[in-house]
Specification:
With about 60 residues, the chain is an all-alpha fold. Helix content is about 85%, strand content about 0%.
Length: about 60
């Protein structure tokens, strides 16, 4: 999921450089949503593992 975020971020930067502001704004918005979704899923995963008594895997 983090890979998708980086891909949309790169698309937003490239579109912004070429002046496609609508596409750049949309790609940046999608990247932001996916990034925050990734953070929420990470926190949930860490909490579930902590409640089960397992630490992070090496």
């Amino acid at each position: 999921m983090l890979g998708w975020t980086l891909m949309f971020l790169v698309v937003a930067v490239i579109a912004g450089l070429f002046g496609f502001t609508g596409i750049a704004g949309a790609a940046a918005g999608i990247a932001k949503i996916i990034f925050f979704l990734f953070i929420v899923l990470l926190v949930i995963s860490l909490l579930v593992n902590a409640l089960r008594g397992r630490g992070p895997r090496p």
